[in-house]
Write a structure and sequence with these properties.
With 303 residues, the protein is an all-alpha fold. 58% of the residues lie in helices and 1% in strands. The protein is globular and about 55 Å long. Keywords: Fatty acid biosynthesis, Fatty acid metabolism, Iron, Lipid biosynthesis, Lipid metabolism, Membrane, Oxidoreductase, Transmembrane, Transmembrane helix.
Length: 303
Amino acid sequence: MAVPLQHTKKELVLSKRKWEFSDAVNMGIIILGTAAVLASPFHFTWSALWVALVLHWMTIHIGISLSFHRNLSHKSLKLTKSLEYLFAYFGLHAAQRDPMWWVSVHRHHHQFTDSDRDPHSPVEGFWFSYVNWAFNHNYLREKCGGLNNVMDLQKQAYYRFLQKTYYLHLVALALLLYLGGGLSHLIWGFGGAHGSGWGVRIAFGHHFTFMVNSVCHTWGNRPWNTSDLSKNNWVVGFVGFGEGWHNNHHAFEFSARLGLEWWQLDVPWYIIKLLEYLGLATHVKVPTELQKSKFSHKNQKLH
């Protein structure tokens, strides 16, 4: 049973609630991000665009979707240890926090989906699930209880190191971008920290993630009979290159494949299949036909 919380929905947004320093930092970075995106057309270069696209591919599709989400959060596949660590490092540069924090929040989301202990559910308001949850770390700790569900990662020195040195890696990337391409590369290719970002690449990456948390629990279709509000949203599915098939994911959260139909674009899945062919990925999990039948609406009607 979900534990009642002391906060009210009104307090989640208004200034009456307690603001931590990290919350204020996040808000400030979001404001800077808006300014950076507005300034980006005035600092456009083709090289800056290509830097942003390559980094977006590495950090979102491989780092967040394949590594943080499917590999670390759900153990949907096994990678060689060196590749696991490399892909997790890519994910760190998406500026959505370190692997342990990201995985912890996501595991709590699946454990308490669309209840009052879900870290980011539309049941507490659409804009809360979209972005406001990132500005209330005290509320997240009260809901979820901290990093008590990522002991598998806490046991590994590598992930503890990334947690402790998170900001240093982002600063190092920012310096490299600036030294390599000046202000245009910094604006188009760099990102902020603490789950919020500035720069074109990071802004788009965060909004893709925010849309999955909110839009895909509000609008779309439900081919599978799950006990939550998850939905497949074809717009997010194609724009996010696979993560928008969210009802598929909640029905079979263990699956390395989210786009279960041939027409459902799922770029990380294609990468996983290539890695499996090369022998770099093993124990790749997908739902069986029997498992699909248990969540089918047609099967539910027969019973």
